[in-house]
């Protein structure tokens, strides 16, 4: 067989494997995860720095600056928690609940005490509230029976759309409304099964835009209204004029815009775009709840987007590099000759220290979150998902790495890895790994040793000066004992 004939099938095999991998790989959008051992349902912002998380079993959590509180309401799925600060010195909370309607509560003595719950015609309390909007003189509720309003000082919900003479109000026939947004002082818009409901805040006139079409979600950004229908995105002005209709070649039930980035969310996928012409699909490693539209919001003063998944809250930086060629850099290291980077797409790049251009050399498996990148003895090492130490045998080119490079887990920690460091030795290398109250050393022959004198020490960092055979280990102890010194074996 000639050299050409040998290379050709290898390239074809590589392309086939890459094509399969592209379909299955879970990309990352730079998310940081806060895990809940609970089925989650919704997220509701509370001011600039706090949010409420609702579960599928009646639990709610408040998460703020250095504050976390949990409560059990004892109800069904929580779709919305809306804070009401219209009365000075008093905060009330409006809750939208599956099959339990609209409720008003106040947190007293560490418990969200029920103040009132609100009936509607025919259904009584047995209806669902999917979203709530608090304005100066009105509470708006998007329900399974249409849009309702509650005027300040009144204890009776009023049907706003469909009206009181409709079959929905008379017989209890369902009319799905999904979410509510306010567009400045101009209007309130609501996504519904029959179009986008628009309420003029000056005249209180109720009209329906895109009548007859199912509108899954409405959102407001840059003084424009975005409404998702089947395979299209409507962009409207506050006065109701349609500015643009964007065709979509994918399905989505939620749209959210932060800065230049549009998020289109549907189950286990998100599609991103900066111009509504070019779209980047991302398969998420966790699914987003599909029975509620309150799954994404913005932390205003912190520069993060909050997105809810079935069991976790994700904080996504606004500056995530998903549209850049190299993406957001998550970790980097150097061997003295080359710099190595891993980005938010789990791609590894190498750059000569005397050059300004980095070259892609390897794709890491999807679903892995890289916490640290290290190099020693001609190998790359990375910490995967805060638990595993993985070794990569890196070659010169991307093609060689895709065909020949193998990854091997050399250590699977029983608890979270708190710090790590790769040190070259005369015989190869040693990897130092700090886990909860332990120090573990891994030699180049994969022998794993526990350092007994460091037992009970919580390690936060390692340091070794270039050319030194001494490792300094930092622990959160008083200053006089904060640095531990251990000679490396030569």
Describe this structure as you would to a colleague.
The chain starts with a helix and ends with a strand. A hairpin with a 5-residue loop joins β24 and β25. The longest helix has 22 residues. The strands form eleven sheets. The protein has a four-stranded antiparallel beta sheet with strand order 1-28-27-26, with no helix packed on it. Strands 2-3-4-5 form a four-stranded antiparallel beta sheet, with no helix packed on it. Strands 6-7-8-9 form a four-stranded antiparallel beta sheet, with no helix packed on it. The protein is elongated and about 85 Å long. Helices cover 7% and strands 51% of the residues. It has 490 residues and is mainly beta. The protein contains three helices and 43 strands.
Summarize the structure.
This protein has 490 residues and is mostly beta strands. It has a 4-stranded antiparallel β-sheet, with no helix packed on it. Strands 2-3-4-5 form a 4-stranded antiparallel β-sheet, with no helix packed on it. The radius of gyration is 28 Å and the shape is elongated.
Low-confidence stretches: 1-26, 320-326, 478-482
Strand order of the largest sheet: 1-28-27-26
- The coarse overall form would be elongated
Radius of gyration from the alpha-carbon trace, in angstroms: 28 Å
The largest pleated sheet is described as:
4 strands, antiparallel
Structural class designation: mainly beta
User: What percentage of amino acids are in beta strands?
Assistant: over 45%
How widely separated are the two ends?
Answer: 47 Å
Number of extended strands = 43
Mean pLDDT over the full residue set? 85
Number of helices: 3
Helical coverage, percent range: under 10%
């Amino acid at each position: 067989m000639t050299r050409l004939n040998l290379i050709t099938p290898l390239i074809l095999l590589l392309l086939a494997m890459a094509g399969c991998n592209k379909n299955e790989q879970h990309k990352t959008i730079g998310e940081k995860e806060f895990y809940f051992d609970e089925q989650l349902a919704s997220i509701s912002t509370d001011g600039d720095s706090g949010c409420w998380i609702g579960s599928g079993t009646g639990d709610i959590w408040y998460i703020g600056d250095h504050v976390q509180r949990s409560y059990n309401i004892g109800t069904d799925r929580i779709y919305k928690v809306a804070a009401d600060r219209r009365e000075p010195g008093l905060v009330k909370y409006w809750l939208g609940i599956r099959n339990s309607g609209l409720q008003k509560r106040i947190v007293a003595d560490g418990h969200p005490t029920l103040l009132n719950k609100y009936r509607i015609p025919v259904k009584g309390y047995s209806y669902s509230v999917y979203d709530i909007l608090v304005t100066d003189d009105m509470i708006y509720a998007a329900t399974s029976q249409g849009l309702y309003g509650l005027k300040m000082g009144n204890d009776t919900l009023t049907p706003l759309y469909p009206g009181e003479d409709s079959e929905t109000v008379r017989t209890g026939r369902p009319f799905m409304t999904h979410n509510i947004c306010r567009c400045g002082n101009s209007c309130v818009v609501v996504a519904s099964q029959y179009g986008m409901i628009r309420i003029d805040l000056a005249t209180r006139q109720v009209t329906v835009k895109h009548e007859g079409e199912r509108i899954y979600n409405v959102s407001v950004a840059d003084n424009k209204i975005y409404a998702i229908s089947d395979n299209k995105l409507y962009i409207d002005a506050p006065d109701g004029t349609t500015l643009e209709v964007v065709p979509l070649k994918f399905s989505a039930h939620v749209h959210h815009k932060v800065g230049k980035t549009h998020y289109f969310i549907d189950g286990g996928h998100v599609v991103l775009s900066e111009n509504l012409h070019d779209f980047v699909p991302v398969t998420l490693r966790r699914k987003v709840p599909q029975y509620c539209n309150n799954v994404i919001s913005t932390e205003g003063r912190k520069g993060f987007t909050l997105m809810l998944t079935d069991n976790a809250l994700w904080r996504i930086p606004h500056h995530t590099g998903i549209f850049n060629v190299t993406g957001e850099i998550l970790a980097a290291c150097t061997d003295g000759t080359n710099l190595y980077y891993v980005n938010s797409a789990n791609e590894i790049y190498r750059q000569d220290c005397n050059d300004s251009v980095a070259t892609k050399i390897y794709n890491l498996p999807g679903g892995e979150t890289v916490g640290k990148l290290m190099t020693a003895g001609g190998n790359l090492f990375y910490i995967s998902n805060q638990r595993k130490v993985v070794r990569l045998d890196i070659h010169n080119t991307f093609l060689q790495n895709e065909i020949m490079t193998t990854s091997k887990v050399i250590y699977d920690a029983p608890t979270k890895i708190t710090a790590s460091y790769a040190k070259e030795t005369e015989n190869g290398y040693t990897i130092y790994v700090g886990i909860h109250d332990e120090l573990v050393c891994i030699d180049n022959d994969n022998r794993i040793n526990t350092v007994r004198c460091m037992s009970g020490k919580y390690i936060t960092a390692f340091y070794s000066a270039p050319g030194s055979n001494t490792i300094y280990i930092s622990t959160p102890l008083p200053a006089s004992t904060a640095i531990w010194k251990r000679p490396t074996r030569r």
